[in-house]
Batch of 2 targets.
Target 1
Amino acid sequence: MSEPLVDLLRGIAAQPERWSVRFPVQRPPAPALSMCVPFPRLEIVLEGEVRDGCLPAGDDHLRAQQALYIPAGRWNLPQWDAPALTLSILFSKQKLGFSLQRWSGKGMESISKQHVARLGPRVGSYLLMAMNELALLPAEPTLRLTFAGLISHCVDQLTHLPASISKSQALLRAIQEYVDDNAGQSLSRDSVAKRFHITPNYLSHLFQKAGQTGFNDYLTAVRLEQAKKLLRGYDMKIKEIAHRCGFEDSNYFCRLFRRHTARSPTEYRRHCRTL
């Protein structure tokens, strides 16, 4: 654990009103030399300013006490024109990565780098989901408070959580990751239980013990999140999106989508593209 890093994060989380959070504008495809990874990231400017090609022309400088949240699969292109102190946080499925660095105007100095396993409840995953939704329609002060919550969660991961987890927790995490990666397939409680060599009842018990949603609700939530991404970024037919996300019946998918979002898939796509 890095005490200076923890103190820095605590200071950010304690004063959300001092921070503003920005998001990349939609500019596919990613240009040469841009940074793009399949995980969400935070780029936080602590001192100075950094110009970034993913921000709007004329307002493309990220200044002190500003953070750039980059959803998974989106790119950014930092340009180091002036001295700056920045903190980068990478949220992969298994780990959190922290990189504190300073650009002097002549060269880059790496001050601190650290990785920590993501353990315990999936609080961070839900905070990241909230940030992804806020990227579509930023709302203050919710955005600042969610950002502060995400930073506070990073502190928890660095300081409060145990170094190991129980076998049942490890099994549940493996099941959740399998569902995340294969939600577009024909999954069921029975088929997933069989893959992990456990009974369907024990699989349900694992989800109930964690105090989270049940297996079927978890699978539905993952599939709907994937559908939202496809609706936002692609011109696929609704039926094709439904099948791609594991729904055999596109009419059922549309009813379920409306129940969870208060919009039909078509209305959701239209809304996202007007932002």
Note: The first helix runs from residue 3 to 14.
Target 2
Amino acid sequence: MELFDLYDDERNFTGETIERRKPLPESRYHLVIHICILGSDGKMLIQQRQPFKKSFPGKWDVSVGGSAVAGENSRQAASRELYEELGISHDFSHDRPMLTVHFERGFDDVYVIHKDIAVSELKLQAEEVQAAKWADRDEIYSLIDSGAFIPYYKSYIDMLFNYRTKRGNFSKE
């Protein structure tokens, strides 16, 4: 039985937990993480979800995504999910999310990390991931347009790619 910590709308831990797949109580939220891995060639490592997944079966997605389990903070969840889904170890102790997306049921901390790794070196989690590959922005746009990628806003994908060389939300020019 997997448990999630519950947070209020200010992201304060309430001391409550809930079982996965149970409806969240009113005014309670849970923590999700996504990791975007960008290579030195400017491409993003993307993964294809298994066809039997409940949400977005068979769709392509950013490198890693998942929920924090009870007792985990965002960094711990990111480290665990990255290792579970792709077999990659990364120390997130000095990383901060590039952004936090507030969605209907929670908070989504999005990390952008830089790593060059061959797809053949990945250890894909059979329960979650059926394939992985490196893709440039245009290929991801095409996958979104064809319905083969989770239907993210293209501006979100742009932001992830732009964070490869830039930080913050304004130009220093």
Note: The chain has one domain: 3-162.
